[in-house]
Structures are given as structure tokens and as C-alpha cells.
Amino acid sequence: MKQNITLSLDKELIRKNKIIAAQRETSVSKMLSEELEGLIQRTEQYEFAKRKALANLKKGFHFGGKITTSRESLHER
To answer: In this structure, are residues 13 and 21 in contact, taking their beta carbons and an 8 Å threshold?
Structure first.
């Protein structure tokens, strides 16, 4: 479902946007819509990767080897 919105933009920005849209043989509306979709997609991918990385960090990694001493004995003063 599509819905119209009203934007308030600088006149020079609008002029340059129209030029770029014409060069791409598309409309300003279509171009802005595609850019917003891309922004949303990149944001969602980033958030997914961030949650996955944080979950991996919380779970921890095992790099092999054996623990031969306790943390307390290493930090005795």
C-alpha cells in the first residue's frame, strides 16, 4: 500500500535531485523511494549482524588449550 508524504527540502537540493533523476531516467519519487528502501535494508542487515556478533561474544570462543591455573592464583598480590 502506498501513501503520499510531504517533504520540506531546500530548493537547490530539489533542483539537483531532479537532474539526477532525469539522468537515471526515473522519477524523483521513485529514486527517493529506492534510496529509503536501501537505507532500511542496510540498517536491518547491520542490526542482524550486530545481534549475531553480540550473541557470539556472549557465548564465547574456545581456541583450544587447557586451563592449568585458576584466575585467582594468577591475580594474587
So the answer is: no
Residues 6+ apart with CB under 8 A from 46: none
Model confidence over 15-57: pLDDT tens digits? 999 999 999 999 999 999 999 999 999 999 999 999 999 999 9
CA-to-CA distance for 22 and 44, rounded, in angstroms?
Answer: 30
- What is the C-alpha to C-alpha distance for residues 18 and 34, in angstroms, rounded to an integer? 15
What's the Cα-to-Cα distance from 36 to each of 33, 42, 48, rounded to whole Å?
Answer: 5, 10, 18
**Any idea where the domains of the chain sit in the sequence?**
11-59
* pTM score: 0.68
Q: Is 54 left (phi over 0), alpha (psi -120 to 50) or beta?
A: alpha
CA distance 27 to 31: 6
